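Q: I'm writing up a methods section and want to include an example of the input and output format. Could you take the sequence below and give the corresponding predicted structure tokens, formatted cleanly so I can copy it straight into the document?
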Amino acid sequence: GECKIWDGPQWHLKGCEQLLKRYMTGREFRSFCLDFFKGPGMYKKLEDLRLLLNAEKPLQQAGDAKPHFILGAFVTEHEHSSGRQVMMLHLGCNLHVEE
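A: Here is the clean output for your methods example:
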């Protein structure tokens, strides 16, 4: 897995790219990219990210994202360079506290 402090969709995608192109060998079939959200609106940002991934299908994404039982999380599938299709869980952890 990969963890990032949320800095927008492109930063999240850089984490996904690290997973798919550097860390994963193709022997694993599941991974995750977890973002820590210091600002408000985590669920809206995750939903916008899901819509963006569905529209652009980056990193050899195969099909649309599927919902996950973790609130706000979703799963995408990608063609790995090994030839295997791998799943990636996208999820967030809210660190924002109203003062």
